[in-house]
Specification:
383 residues; 7-stranded mixed sheet; binds pyridoxal-5'-phosphate; globular; 12 helices; alpha/beta
Length: 383
């Protein structure tokens, strides 16, 4: 048996008829970049999220970069980012010339810690080397960040709040959709994301008319009223029409059954996996898209043992993320860590994502549960 962390092949087989039809229509239509389906997708996403504007682009990293650029964030500015996330969250900050300030995360949600953020803000302000401008909150593994407290804090301190919803699409907080929080939100359509295409893609979501106009200009070489009028230096960051067509098919599947199925599997894991495993906790009011189902083990030795043993049984698992951002070589030399980042380090040593995708069979789910529990039993009986 071979069980993938996310099985895009099975998803394709299920959606094949519709996807193939869309691809073949596109081959005949030949409006390969920013064709009509891109507009249709953007409208559909705006309706779903209840936001005024969805502006698609080439990937989730560009989406973050363009929002920061549009807000005029650059050299001398501080942007607070969680230390435990994919590299692109901080990279986008560096790409616009600003300084990422790493903030610790909560052990139980994996998301940015409000108390650590407050401390990081106070220290940064006191040092006076860079000026606090933006907080980027990440909806890690599909769980929305604590937007109740983040929104209050950012309003009070007059900071912009940017939701990095690359993994968050499909999640909810108090029935408000992930990717609709903050002054702007972004997502990624990278293939393995909850809503993924067959290549790179991304989007910016906002209710701010001016910001949306600016992003539309930035994504197309700084265009003005016309494609060949260029009023600022921008990017080549458009979404391919073929990807929009694929996303329209996958969006329906995500809403109709994929989210429900992943949540059902997650509930079953929470109930049946050995109690010595720390399972993802979803607080009342939150809904996760379960981009990943990520468990925590007592230490790195057990985590690594479990990963190796699962692999020998044909079950893929992955460590997201093995290196906290502040320990990455690219940031090691920079002195931008005003606060302790202990939870982030702890998570990088103890977490493991296991398959919980919507195309797992009941048999496979049971096999994963049985395998994980047996491996744990064996580990504990030996130690
Ligand atoms: C949290 C987070 N932010 C940003 C990105 C960047 O998205 P992309 O790969 O589409 O540039 C990713 C993608 O993995 C991500 O997980």
């Amino acid at each position: 048996m071979q069980i993938q962390l996310r099985d895009l092949k099975r998803q394709y087989i299920k959606l094949k008829r519709k996807i193939n039809r869309e691809i073949s229509i596109q081959m005949m239509n030949t409006d390969f970049i920013m064709g009509k389906p891109v507009e249709i997708l953007e409208t559909k996403l705006s309706d779903f999220l209840s936001v005024n504007h969805s502006v698609s682009c080439a990937n989730g990293t560009d989406a973050l970069v363009m929002v920061l650029r549009a807000w005029g964030v650059g050299a001398g500015d501080a942007v607070f980012v969680p230390d435990f996330t994919f590299f692109a969250t901080a990279e986008a900050v560096s790409l616009v010339g600003a300084t990422p300030i790493f903030v610790d995360v909560e052990l139980d949600t994996f998301n940015i810690s409000i108390s650590s953020l407050k401390l990081a803000y106070d220290i940064t302000l006191k040092k006076g080397l860079v000026i606090p401008k933006v907080v980027i909150a990440v909806d890690l593994f599909g769980l929305p960040a604590d937007y109740d407290n983040l929104t209050d804090f950012c309003r009070y301190k007059r900071l912009k709040l940017l939701e990095d919803g690359a993994q968050g699409f499909g999640g909810e907080l108090h029935s408000k959709k992930a990717c609709s929080f903050g002054d702007a939100a972004t997502t990624s359509f990278f293939p393995a994301k909850p809503l993924g295409c067959y290549g790179d893609g991304g989007a910016v979501f906002t209710n701010d008319d001016k910001l949306a106009e600016l992003i539309k200009s930035l994504r197309a070489h700084g265009m003005g009223s016309d494609r060949y009028e260029n009023i600022r230096i921008g990017y080549n960051s458009r979404l391919d029409t073929i990807q929009a067509r694929i996303l329209l098919v996958k969006f329906d599947a995500l809403i109709k059954f994929e989210l429900k199925k992943s949540n059902l599997i997650a509930s079953k894991y929470n109930e049946k996996l050995d109690d010595r495993i720390i399972k993802p906790s979803i607080s009342p009011g939150y809904y996760s898209s379960f981009a990943q189902y990520t468990i925590r083990l007592s230490d790195s030795k057990l985590r690594d043992y479990l990963k190796t043993e699962l692999s020998s049984l044909g079950i893929q698992s992955q460590i997201y993320y093995p290196i906290p951002l502040h320990m990455q070589a690219a940031y090691k030399e920079s002195d931008t860590n005003p606060v302790p980042l202990l939870n982030s380090i702890e998570l990088s040593n103890t977490c493991l994502s296991i398959p919980a995708h919507p195309y797992l069979t009941k048999l496979e789910v049971d096999y994963i549960i049985k395998s994980v529990n047996r491996i744990l039993e064996r580990f504990y009986s030996k130690t």
